[in-house]
Amino acid sequence: MPRADRLATLWLFHPLRRCVASLLSARVAILMYHSVSEATSNGLHPYFETTTSPRVFAEHMKFLCEAGYRTLQLDEAVNYVKSPEQPSEPSVVLTFDDGFQDFSTHAFPILHRYGFTATVFLPTAYIGDRRRQLNTRGCLTWAEVRALHRVGVTFGSHTVTHPLLNFLNAGELEQEVRRSKETIEDQIGDPVDSFSYPFAFPETHRGFKTQLRDLLGAQGYRNGVSTIIGTCGPREDQFFLPRLPVNAWDDRRLFRAKLEGGYDWLHSFQYARKLATVGGP
Ligand SMILES: [Zn+2]
């Protein structure tokens, strides 16, 4: 299937990026996975696919290991890109949105094999003592969350009900941000530091961003991730860090290009589309 984003990344932007890599400040790729399973969303353009097959996921992790990557937590990544010293080894952050059960059955065994860390973002209304579903896919139970936490998996908030946050009133927004954090903390017995914004991030809405940033800070969050495309540099907003979407279509070449900043150019198009949709910042 011809893909303009793939061709431009592999033949233009990744080679250009590699030429100037030594001139740029340190950046780290925060990868955004969702489900690690065989099922694919039929008919979607590969850009919009969110599922990664276990085979492709295993290849991604093998590549990271062979290329010498170490995995960071989000707070470590924020410090990493701000450090004046150039790091000696490449680093990456692994994140998983939506809290699907297949993280436990398909992703974690592979992560464990390589000693990699990861953060899983939970929409808490879909996590129960009995299995619940989000978009027809089974989610983790609280017993599974606690077991994964005990073996080193980090958990963050992905709201309570997975809504379009910018359509909520102030009270509803506060509930989504506060209650999800409290619920996870009650279950795992540890602080929750990170927040993941569901759906497309309204990065052109300055007023909403300020409101949400203040709320996240007031509720005790220390950082957060968004669906803004790109690697993470020293000047990012620590509550809305950019990520790189990855899925079953990312073969070794495209995966490597994404890690090395070769996919960052797509953010210009993503931003322009949002401007066109809302009529300006
Ligand atoms: Zn989500």
Overview of the structural elements:
- The chain has 281 residues and is α/β, with parallel strands linked by helices.
- It has a single domain, classed as TIM Barrel (Alpha-Beta Barrel).
- Helices cover 41% and strands 16% of the residues.
- It contains 9 helices and 12 strands.
- Strands 1, 4, 5, 6, 9, 10, 11 and 12 form an 8-stranded parallel β-sheet that branches.
- The radius of gyration is 18 Å and the shape is globular.
> What is the end-to-end distance?
35 Å
Tell me the strand percentage band: 15-25%
How much is the radius of gyration in Å? 18 Å
Low-pLDDT residue intervals, each spanning 5 or more residues: none
Q: What structural class results from the helix and strand content? A: alpha/beta
Order of SSEs: HEEEHEHEHEEEHEHEHEEHH
**CATH homologous superfamily name?**
Glycoside hydrolase/deacetylase
What is the architecture at the second tier of CATH?
Alpha-Beta Barrel
Please report the first level of CATH classification, the CATH class. Alpha Beta
Bound molecules: zinc ion
Range of helix content = 40-55%
Shape label: globular
Mean pLDDT: 91
Q: The biggest beta sheet, please?
A: 8 strands, parallel
Helix count, per DSSP?
9
CATH topology: TIM Barrel
Whole-number count of domains = 1
Strand segment count: 12
